[in-house]
Specification:
The structure holds two protein chains of two kinds. By secondary structure, chain A is an all-beta fold. Helices cover about 0% and strands about 45% of the residues of chain A. Chain A has no helices and ten strands. In chain A, the strands form two sheets. Chain A has a six-stranded mixed β-sheet with strand order 2-10-9-4-5-6, with no helix packed on it. Chain A is globular, with a radius of gyration of 13 Å. The chains are: A mainly beta, B mainly beta.
Chain lengths: ~120, ~110
């Protein structure tokens, strides 16, 4: 079955760049679907960050668009998140997930286990 | 931005007692609504999509209903493993989507 696994630093300093990678197994990213990043601050609901298609097309949450870049590496079956100029408010558990197969079906299933990223000096 | 509001914040029920969780959208999202279950330390798990379709492997005691701005997740006879936090998510305005703040289902 499809499995996703996030990796990257758990601690990032303010003003620096948060970088995470999601490795996908059990399914080829090139076969379709959008692939997304979602974050969840402690004790709060999830927030969609953005999604990428295997072609490289990207969509971002307007609230984060100026600081976010999502890219895909089909040769490694991975996709990545960069969030720059981080602040304490970016502290959250970051999840990657398989997203929409098409625009009308934009739910997330399955999800990776998540990785806690803390922004602190 | 479409705001999703879930109620109540916490719902206390006895095992086997029907649980009804609500989700309201700030504007119509048609039937473009999903429900997720999240247990402590775990990622959300998809339960329902299209407002009422159960995801693969989800027990029949979970059911979703509603359209437009009012939605309900019903757990007909909650089992011990069902006590968790539940989130709704609207996906009506591609590519944007938004989640509710969650309802915690706890054992009475």
């Amino acid at each position: 079955q499809v499995q996703l696994q996030e990796s990257g630093p758990g601690l990032v300093k303010p003003s620096e760049t948060l970088s995470l990678t999601c490795s996908v197994s059990g399914y080829s990213i090139s076969s379709g679907y959008y692939w997304g990043w979602i974050r969840q601050p402690p004790g709060k609901g999830p927030e969609w960050i953005g999604s990428v298609y295997h072609s490289g097309s990207t969509y971002y949450n307007p609230s984060l668009k100026s600081r976010v870049t999502i890219s895909v590496d089909t040769s490694k079956n991975q996709f990545s998140l960069n969030l720059n100029s981080v602040i304490a408010g970016d502290t959250a558990v970051y999840y990657c997930a398989r997203a929409a197969i098409a625009a009308a079906y934009n739910w997330f299933d399955p999800w990776g286990q998540g990785t806690l990223v803390t922004v602190s000096s | 931005e479409i705001v999703m509001t879930q109620s109540p914040a916490t719902l206390s029920v006895s095992p086997g007692e029907r649980a009804t969780l609500s989700c309201r959208a700030s504007q119509s999202v048609s039937s473009n609504l999903a429900w997720y279950q999240q247990k402590p330390g775990q990622a959300p798990r998809l339960l329902i999509y299209g407002a009422s379709a159960r995801a693969t492997g989800i027990p029949a005691r979970f059911s979703g209903s509603g359209s437009g701005t009012e939605f309900t997740l019903t757990i007909s006879s909650p089992q011990s493993e069902d006590f968790a936090v539940y989130y709704c998510q609207q996906y009506n305005n591609w590519p944007m989507c938004s989640f509710g703040q969650g309802t915690k289902l706890e054992i009475k």
